[in-house]
Design goal:
The protein has about 220 residues and is α+β, with helices and mostly antiparallel strands. It contains seven helices and ten strands. The longest helix is centred in the last third of the chain and has 40 residues. The structure holds iron/sulfur cluster (SF4) (2 copies).
């Protein structure tokens, strides 16, 4: 029938319109800001830097490798490397960022910085109420403003954060086992060196014998 599709579409619209007054599933809007819709786990807006422990500065996972800075499409990340080192999450001495800024007014929430970070150091926040009248200073976040605890990360992305924790724990266990094996090998080598240097363990010295002479049976000549 001519116009059947239009009538069906209008019927669906009318059903949704009327239903939105009586059906909870159809109430897709809330009276913001008095009411807030729950933030879903996969929500993302702007990046933050994860730290472990209670000291944000000592616990930052970032090692200032600058991969995210290079890969960020609008180039809104700015990093300055340290000249000294501090232990990372596996205890390995690492460079760290003395400066890590993100210009949130330029960031396009693409999450590329998160994808390329090899250290699980940068993640996407769900905080969106960031408007300010200070266009420049107010939206340029330094490392202290960007720092968020691992507990906070768990609170906003529990599934992802649990996977990351498991991965990091596995890497740490591997690193610990490697360090233990290296220490054991070094100790064994040192013990061997000490034993070789101890006179009682050394082989008895035999008096030097005169040069031996051998006869080549084929040629019947004496070699010595
Ligand atoms: S989310 Fe994208 S635009 Fe924003 S800082 Fe990361 S890489 Fe840059
Ligand atoms: S956030 Fe990650 S990718 Fe960026 S500098 Fe730090 S460790 Fe490197």
């Amino acid at each position: 029938m001519l116009g059947e599709g239009i009538l069906k579409g209008l019927g669906e619209t009318a059903r949704n319109f009327a239903g939105s007054f009586v059906s909870a599933e159809r109430l897709t809007t809330v009276q913001y800001p008095e009411e807030r819709a729950p933030v879903i786990e996969d929500t993302r807006d702007f990046p933050f830097l994860v730290y472990d422990g209670s000291d944000w500065e000592a616990g930052l996972r970032c090692v200032a490798c600058q991969i995210c800075e290079k890969e960020c499409p609008p180039k809104c990340i700015y990093i300055v490397k340290s000249t000294d080192k501090k232990p990372d999450y596996v205890g390995k001495p690492q460079i760290y960022p003395t400066r890590f800024d993100i210009d949130i007014s330029v960031c396009m929430s693409c999450q590329i910085c998160v994808e390329v970070c090899p250290f699980e150091a940068i993640k996407m926040d769900t905080q969106f109420e960031l408007s300010t009248t200070d266009r420049f200073g107010g939206l340029l976040y330094d490392r202290k403003e960007l720092a968020r605890s691992n507990e906070y990360y768990h609170s906003i992305h529990p599934t992802e954060a649990a996977e990351v924790d498991a991965r990091l724990a596995e890497e740490k266990a591997k690193s610990d086992a490697k360090a233990k094996a290296a220490a054991a090998a070094a100790a064994a080598k040192a013990a061997g060196t000490v034993a070789a240097a101890t006179p009682s363990a050394a082989k008895p010295v035999t008096p030097a014998s005169p040069p031996s002479t051998t006869v080549d049976p084929a040629e019947g000549e004496t070699k010595g």
